[in-house]
Write a structure and sequence with these properties.
single chain; 444 residues; mainly alpha; Growth Hormone, Chain: A; two-stranded antiparallel ribbon; 78% helix
Length: 444
Amino acid sequence: MDNSATTDSLHSDFWRAHRDLLFKASCMALVVTAMSFAIRGGLIDTLGTKFGLSKTQMGVISGTSMWGFGLSIAIGGWLCDIVGMGRLLILAVFGHAIGIVTIVLASGSNAFTMLFLGTLSFGLANGFVEAACNPLIATLYPDQKIKRLNMFHVWFPGGIVIGGLAAYVVDNSGIGGADHNWQVQMLTMVIPLVIYAALFIGKKFPATERSASGVTMAEMFTSCLKPLYIILLICMTMTAATELVTENWIPNILTYTASMKGILILVLINGLMAIGRTFAGNIVHKISPVALLIGSSSFGIAGLFLLAKADSPATAVVAAIIFAIGVCYFWPTMLGVTSERFPRSGALGIGLMGAIGSFSVAIWTPLVGKVFDGGIAQAVAAGKTQAEAQAIGGKAGLGVLLYLPIILVVVFICIFAYDKSRGGYKQVVLVQHQEEDNVAPAAS
């Protein structure tokens, strides 16, 4: 049935009593995902210089995490109903541990391969976190999906702030010396990794919302073929690239264009995003989630344009604030709209949405790196210094992303008009029948 009102359809006192602990553990898992994004992004220039890798090569390495992320979240979305969310999270723990060790051991002629494989392992682990935790939260909070998914995704920008500040402190402290400081930065992720592993192992997990509501596999796959769902998938390729490709490159780019530590701008952006997502529930109760996405895309256009033009710390800060307002709600709201409009698509529907966003980032990240390299080469040929060439190349790289939020504004306005013609935005509610006794723990 269609229902725009708030409706608690969980129908389980056991899971109402235990859901907050699982929510907190999910947030800690996302912190590790985000720290890996921030620390690896901050090390692009360091590792490229240390191992003699080009911007294109570093873009390929960075993009690899999103290929792994997309693959595991797509597969994980389907596996949720087969192996359970808890076992996917155990895979995430091992993937994060392997990623840290592999990257830390990178050296000499094997550097590209080790960085590639370590980053891929991180991507797979990050995808398993999203593949398990997004449907877990949608299942446990059926009446608060967009609010809770935004609160969960507070810890992506929150984790980037933690990771960015940890990297900044370690870098400036000189711990490990010039040769090993970057490895110490990577090892800071071990602490939250151990915490989230301890919080999840041995815990019971509910059946997914789709399974508990009696929706068949056939209905799940059919829901993923509906026209509006496919349109949202296409939009996700652009919202994800606008947010994550930009964030992946700006620590490197703004270091040259704005003459400051670019990692601090990344921290600022994500600190603001964390604040915004914390209060997302208040916003979506007052306006349509699609209207929120229209506003986000509009601010994204202005923010990207200004970031590409920033040439001082002051202009970089202003651009970063506007950009943060723009991209703040993209990822969690897209997932929330998907879960509210297409709950029968289940974990697969959310998983495919995350996967397509990840694949888009994997494609666009090295593309920006290639434009970056091309801009550097042209500037050097024109007689510019290396620092000036880096700045010119960086601005050119960011400029290619500007078209994406422009397209998004048009598409979201069309969806908003379609909803309005049918009486406004409406959530589809499924009634769950959760059974506590037949759910296996994450590990035993």
